[in-house]
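User: two proteins, same treatment. go.

Assistant:
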Amino acid sequence: MNTKVQNEWDNNVDTGDQYKIPWLDLDMDSVREFAEGKLSGFHKPTGKIDIPMLTKIRKILYGDLKGKKVLCLASGGGQQSAVFALLGADVTVADLSQKQLNVDITAANHYGYKIKTVQCDMNDLSVFDAETFDIVYQPVSIVFVPDVLPVYKEVYRVLKSGGIYSVGHINPATYPADLDNGIDGWDGIGYRIASPYIGGPLRVDENGNENMTTGEIDGEYRHLFIDMFCNLTEAEFNIKYVYEDERNFVDCTLLQRYINIISTK
């Protein structure tokens, strides 16, 4: 287990990172609307949506969860676990940071459901038996591993036959829009892409500028589409659906930054 990375994520909890603050204000009407594909999310920007395919995908992921075993992978923080548990799933959260797992326990105590938490690395799920889970849900956390294939293989092993794996990725085309390196990003007219379109680690140069080519590795990795899709099929998954972060359907000023891939075993 990578102690340095673990400590960094523990510190994120202490500093109040937005992804480590539990959702303690969920109401069941909103949760059901979200699960049915009627509501874009729980926090701003949010609103009603009417996208038939997204409605179908939401029902596949969140419909009829009673008694289903769900693994929220590298997902500590008391957010996604709360949604699945409130909809009736038997939820386990696996995360590198015990402090993040403690936040999931806080959410469980708040709402009164039971939850299991396991401290482990997403690359090594040996603590779980093969074919344990009906659904493995992974938010945009796979960006913190250099190679996605070991994670995919571990997920495939712990999924039941016919099980669903939902994994979030950052769209690689949007990285230059966010890199603070003086050559990419908003130029007053549009978003410029000047740095090489390559996968691999994000780096920070001697001037503190984030880029893809020079300086120290900062812990996040840019995965290209070939990394995502070819490695899913290499791990023997069947890719079923690909969709953008649904927040983009509500507020068009947001970049279509996240993509989600749903695969079955």
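Protein 2:
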Amino acid sequence: MAVTAIEQMTKTKLKVYIDESFAFVLTKAEAQAYGLREGASIDDSIYTKIMDEVIVKKAIFKAMNLLKVRDYTQAQLCMKLKSDFYPPKAIDSAIDYVRSYHYIDDRRYAENFCLRNAGTMSRQMMTYKLIQKGVPKELIEDCLNHAETDEKKQIISLFRQKFCTSDMEDVRKRQKILNFFLRKGYTYHDITAALKDIDAQNN
């Protein structure tokens, strides 16, 4: 293997390319310690040592620091480490480490999300947001089945916050209200049932 390029990333960090491909990020001091310079060859043993003793350890440390601030799904944490230029091997090792101690747990994350939002967010919207965070759909469905939701009640509560009962008397405004709730992921059936209840309460 050969060090084909070393690019300045910051004042103290370098991007190292081996055999024309990006390999990892090192500090200037680390690169010097391992004798890395453009055009130099690198033994497999040195490459493995750098990965295991420097890069993987840094990835684990980074993952732990991120999780101290807030919860991440596995997919979110992978993307965060990738954006910080950690190579796949280091990302996999960091994920395996934090998962082994249950510092990340997609089921726990989804359950907490559903419990936190079950009273104010539609099932469809919760599903959409969790999929965006990388939670598997079958896991989301299982967690939602254990969350208590009353979407008609949610719609009535949100209506009271956002609209006036007089808006219901105008056909165009009523349609806008319907569209508002459809965009939030509520079903047509639940919306019309909730609006019917609101009408009944006002008559």
